[in-house]
Structures are given as C-alpha cells and as structure tokens.
Amino acid sequence: QVQLVESGGGLVQAGGSLRLSCAASGRTLSSFAMGWFRQAPGKEREVVAAISRSGGSTNYADAVKGRFTISRDNAANTVYLQMNSLQPEDTAVYYCAVKLVSSLYASGTYSSPGTYDYWGQGTQVTVSS
Question: How many C-beta atoms surround the C-beta of residue 67 within 10 A?
C-alpha cells in the first residue's frame, strides 16, 4: 500500500505560481512512475504531467507546456509540480498518482488515469482573474 498526500494548493492571482508536493509513505517511490492530474467541476479528470520511473522522461498536457514542471525526489519520497503563469482555467482539484513499474530503467510515462495504482486525496488550486 502507498499513501499519497498532496499539499501546496491554494488561491492565487492569474500570473502567479504555486508548487504542489505529493509525499508518499508505505513504499519508496523509486519503483513508481508518477503523474499529476486535475479535475475541474463538471469535467473529467485529465493528466497534467507525468514522469517516468527513471525520471528521465516527462510528458505534459498541451495546455500546461512551458508553464508547469514535474519533478521527483526519490530520497524525499516526494513528487512536485511547479506551476507558473497560472490562469483561471487552471482552477481544479489536483491529484497525484503513482503506477508501479517493474523495470528499473523504464522510461515510459502514463497519461490514462486508469493505469495508475494509487491516488492522493487532492488539493484545490484556485486561480482568480
């Protein structure tokens, strides 16, 4: 079992920045690929960013490319999402998720929510105009 706890959400003005953190317990994150997702009211959950188990590959939704950065710190058992130039359309609940990957050097990233094994409870991000 892996427990994930997100933090760092809040209210920010358009153009501002936030850094989300997702701390894991129960197992080391070094065995997992990770992703950040978001869900706005009335919309489906969508991938924002993903990072491979090895950390060598990342992938971003078109809407956030150039503004968001996903990173991982295996020693801290934490994954981060740095969000810059936030816009009102970024308002959503943000979730982190992890997927167990057997290959140590796996470079794959995963965009489908259904492929992930464990989820955090989410953190609200609200961007005012």
Answer: 15
Asked if 16 and 90 count as a contact pair (C-beta separation under 8 A), the reply is no
What is the spatial distance between Cα 22 and Cα 6, in angstroms, rounded to a whole number?
4
**In a 3-state reduction of DSSP, which class is residue 115?**
helix
The answer to whether 44 touches 19, Cβ cutoff 8 Å, is no
In 3-state terms, what secondary structure has residue 88?
Answer: helix
Please tell me what DSSP assigns to residue 85.
S
Query: Taking Cα atoms as reference points, which of 5, 101, 1, 4 lies closest to residue 52?
Result: 101
76 DSSP 8-state letter:
T
pLDDT tens per residue, range 40-55: 999 999 999 999 998 8
Mean pLDDT value of segment 88-110: 91
